[in-house]
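Q: what sequence does this backbone want?
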């Protein structure tokens, strides 16, 4: 039993959206996107009665621009969280080339590189059955010290006082044009300004925090105050109330 990745990576982009059911000439309602991919998006609206499988017209405002992109999609799932209505939209494309161009306009306006848009999503996998082939037994890997650990993801150094020194590192490929990145999570009450990360010469962002050992912490990276990004090498991922996932570091 091995795994295959989802077709497209999903990004958390807070974009303003005007939407309405496509079957009738009613006024547009307002919403904000929680996450977006080339195949779908999650919307948050105020107390709106979404109907399962209903087709919606979507007018998405591009960030840092007065321009907008028009899309359409079906209601795939819906959820009520207090006074907020959350809904997952599966996008429908009449013209694949035009849809691809629209998605490129959305992501490029948010400074997301094109190569990341259409690549597989490293955060989510689904199980598929495949036939196993005999392979040579790999040589045993030597244990690595924190200094030898991979450049991305979280490295951990356990201290004698019950704390763990955790180094978080966001690679330059995840935020190629970022001016600043902060880390927010359970360890700082999700304060997006409490823990700014240091930009390294190679463009990566890095921060080291002392956290309680024996616990798990959800966290995410906030890029330039407008886009959330998960750690590509987190210990695991946990679904949040917005239909997306948080990174989790296990200590």
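A:
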């Amino acid at each position: 039993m091995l795994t295959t990745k989802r077709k497209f990576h999903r990004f958390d982009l807070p974009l303003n959206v005007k939407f309405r059911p496509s079957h009738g000439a009613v006024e547009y309602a307002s919403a904000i996107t929680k996450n977006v991919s080339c195949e779908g998006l999650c919307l948050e609206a105020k107390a709106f009665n979404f109907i399962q499988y209903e087709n919606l017209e979507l007018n998405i405002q591009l960030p840092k621009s007065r321009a907008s992109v028009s899309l359409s999609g079906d209601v795939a799932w819906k959820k009520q969280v207090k006074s907020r209505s959350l809904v997952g939209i599966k996008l429908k494309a009449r013209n694949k080339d035009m849809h691809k161009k629209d998605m490129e306009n959305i992501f490029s306006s948010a400074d997301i590189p094109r190569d990341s848009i259409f690549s597989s999503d490293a955060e989510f996998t689904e199980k598929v059955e495949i036939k196993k082939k005999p392979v040579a037994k790999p040589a045993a890997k030597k244990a690595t010290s924190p200094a030898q650990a991979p450049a991305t993801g979280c490295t951990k150094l356990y201290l004698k006082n019950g704390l763990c020194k955790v180094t978080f590192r966001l690679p330059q490929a995840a935020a190629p044009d970022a001016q600043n990145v902060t880390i927010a999570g359970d360890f700082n009450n999700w304060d997006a300004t409490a823990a700014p990360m240091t930009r390294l010469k190679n463009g990566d962002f890095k921060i080291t925090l002392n956290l309680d050992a024996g616990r798990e912490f959800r966290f995410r990276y906030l890029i330039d105050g407008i886009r959330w990004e998960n750690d590509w090498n987190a210990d695991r991922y946990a679904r949040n109330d917005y239909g997306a996932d948080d990174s989790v570091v296990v200590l």
